[in-house]
Amino acid sequence: FQSLQFSLKKTKNYLEKKIKKIFFSNQENNHLFESIEEMLLLSDFGVNTTANIIKSLKKEIHKNNTADKSEIFLILKKILLNILNKSSEKKTKINQKKPKIILIVGVNGVGKTTTIGKLAYKLKKSGNSIMLAAGDTFRAAAVDQLQIFGKKNKVPVIYNRIGTDPSAVIYDSIQAAKAKKIDVLIADTAGRLHNKQHLMEELKKIIRIIKKYNLSSSPEITLVIDACSGQNTLQQVKLFNNTINVNNIIVTKLDGTAKGGIIFAISDQFSIPINYLGFGEKIYDLQEFNKQKFIEFLFE
Ligand code: GDP
């Protein structure tokens, strides 16, 4: 958790300054709600989630009949934790047989391929045999990059020529993973959003192929989003979730932003579990998302 803490410093420093000013200064604050609202909006909580938080805050303050700023701060912290807890409610049970298949989806540049390298490292370290599938057959760089991560982790990578049907690569990799009795197959996919319709059809086809050739078991669909993309990410979650039912989310590039608020916006509006946070380009820069610790660190 320490390295994640280090990477979240930007977000923390930013919030800390605002929180100190709002809750712990001797100054009279006649505009408490406006100040909190501004802090949340500027931290990328988004308009809807900010409005929800302010509404809950007013309700709780009324219920507790308090005007004490340090008490209000604790109430706010609790509301924020409740928002993060919403994301555990939607945990879906995935019918999976060996090999477990994790399908990594998301738009170009969010960090899909890098995240696959990190996940492979983590899952291998905890004792799983891993195989990677280069399902982004659109970009040569994506295939090359996956091979580099394969070498680093000493895990096999199944790939095909650029331009081939990604479903064919997925089919080949399922066969190879079965033959080698692999525990977890992690599949990369394309993310060219300028051709949304085509991309979504391609992803649906990949999922059909997986169900058909992997003993009817579903893939775990993991959406990767970039914390630096701000409110755009909400549109991405909506698009992918509406078409292919996302099981969980990985948020990357938390080291590059002072706006960790997007994590709260996603939990609040989609209730999709956030499994991991990515905070750097190195293979070990991925941490399981611990809600309690995350809140404690940001608002301690
Ligand atoms: P893809 O197009 O979604 O597969 O994205 P890539 O994995 O190629 O990543 C795009 C860029 O973001 C690369 O330069 C990565 O090194 C970088 N990147 C990925 N994850 C992180 C992260 O957590 N933090 C930082 N700072 N950079 C990242």
TrEMBL record:
GTP binds at residues 106-113, 188-192, 252-255. Belongs to the GTP-binding SRP family. FtsY subfamily. GO terms for cellular component: cytoplasm; plasma membrane. Involved in targeting and insertion of nascent membrane proteins into the cytoplasmic membrane. Acts as a receptor for the complex formed by the signal recognition particle (SRP) and the ribosome-nascent chain (RNC). Interaction with SRP-RNC leads to the transfer of the RNC complex to the Sec translocase for insertion into the membrane, the hydrolysis of GTP by both Ffh and FtsY, and the dissociation of the SRP-FtsY complex into the individual components. It catalyses: GTP + H2O = GDP + phosphate + H(+). This is Signal recognition particle receptor FtsY. The chain holds residues 121 to 420 of 424 of the full protein. Residues 273-286 form the SRP54-type proteins GTP-binding domain. Its EC number is 3.6.5.4.
